[in-house]
Amino acid sequence: MAEPAIDDIDYLVGPATPHFAYQIRARVQALVRDLPEDHPVRRYADEKVALLDRLGHASSKAEEGPVVGDERLGWERLPSSAPAWEPHPPRP
Q1: Widest CA span of the chain, in angstroms?
Q2: How far, in whole angstroms, is CA 44 from its chain's centroid?
Q3: What is the pLDDT of residue 61?
Q4: How confident is the model at residue 46, as a pLDDT?
Q5: Rounded CA separation 48/85 (Å)
Q6: What is the CA 49 to chain-centroid distance, rounded?
Q7: Own/partner pairs for 16-19, CB < 8 Å, 24+ apart?
Q8: Could you give the C-alpha distances from 45 to 12, 19, 85, in angstroms and in order?
Q9: DSSP-assigned beta bridge partners for residue 83
Q10: Which residue in 45, 50, 54, 70 is deepest, having the highest Cβ count within 10 Å?
Q11: Residues forming beta bridges with residue 60, ordered by sequence position
Q12: φ and ψ at 60, to 5 degrees?
């Protein structure tokens, strides 16, 4: 197998949603497992693994656009609303 590249990491992480974040995180970790810790692709993958971990506690990737305020009509009926940059805290 060829050495993984940043594009390979982006290919896996790009379509990630909260529901599949941990499965994708495992695939990214497996992809770069044999790379040295200081390898640029490994460091990039580690950043994306951290994003996927936050995404696993979120309800939306929501990388673009403003966060919808809780004053929006019907907001109280939404079961969760946490973007990846401010996810819900992990359960104990």
Answers
A1: 52
A2: 13
A3: 62
A4: 97
A5: 12
A6: 7
A7: 16/52, 16/55, 16/61, 17/55, 17/61, 18/55, 18/56, 18/57, 18/58, 18/59, 18/60, 18/61, 18/84
A8: 10, 19, 17
A9: 60
A10: 45
A11: 83
A12: -160, 145
